[in-house]
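Handout, section 3.2

Students often ask what a structure token actually looks like in practice. Rather than define it abstractly, here is a full record for DDE_Tnp_IS1595 domain-containing protein. The first block is the sequence as you would receive it.
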Amino acid sequence: MYDQVPESRKSEIIPLCGYDRVSSICRETFQKKEDWLQDGFPRCFDICSLVAQPVRLVIWLARRRLIRNRTACPQCPNPMLLRTAMVDRHIYKWACRRCGRKLSIRHGSMFIKAGVSDPNIVLILYLWSVGYPTDFLGTEIETSLSSVRWYVWLALKSCAAELRREFKPLQGVIELQWDSFLRPTDKREGLNLLCGVERNSGKVFAVRCPRGNDKGLLRRLIQNNIAPGSSIITRDIPVYSQMNLQSLGYLHYVLDREHEIALDNLVIDLSLVEDFVNTIKSFLRKQGGPGLFCKEIFLAEMIVRRTWGKNLLPMVLYSISQAYDIS
């Protein structure tokens, strides 16, 4: 297969007669995050062309480590070989020449859920990344809504894990605000968050904080998410003064209730964090408001879109490759 598909047969499946000696899909796979980022955000035309060519699509998936490039038989030490599959949605399967054991080409990957073809999964991820709602995807791609939500949920779960891995405490001038976003009901918990915005870079964090007057919890969250030596701006709320942030290594500035005050060449303002809080509230309303249950997933989507921007799809694919060990 090795990335060399004849031009006249790009939309055909390579014929593998019997047990051919094809033990890998492509020569090299992506290794560093930069490989995914350099790949860029593909155009719609490129994606449509890709999903129409089964062989090229399989190579594309393997190169980005979304499916296995090669694998060994779980029963024998021998490498498994690639064979054409009878089921169209799988295109190929892995087979052991010695014991006859067979595995799906999706084995160990996020794509293992049956019933959805490889092209449709790629389309789901692409269209979701450019902003289409899941309800639209289920109709447009002719895939069940539950399957669309399943793959979007798995992708977001991988993205949330990657955000946690790459998170570094904010530093510099930090605007900080606690707010309540959803009230608790008999069927679900409420949603209260401590939100912070780094003024120079626009980096953000939003962490659960059930009680805005819990000094011990607030202290831990601030220390975990804001680097010592930073300047923290808050509202004039007693709990922040009682914590004595200066003793923790922070400079603390309080917003006057009536107007901004400039101190130490620093404008005391909370407009950035207020915009961030309002963005979260607006996003939650659009996703279902008080009836919303999967709060963490929807919050992850908002943070992911804000953080990765134009690199959203490459970073989604990178996050999936890190979350599923297909080596």
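Discussion prompt for tutorial groups: DSSP finds eleven helices and ten strands in the chain. How would you have guessed this from the sequence alone?
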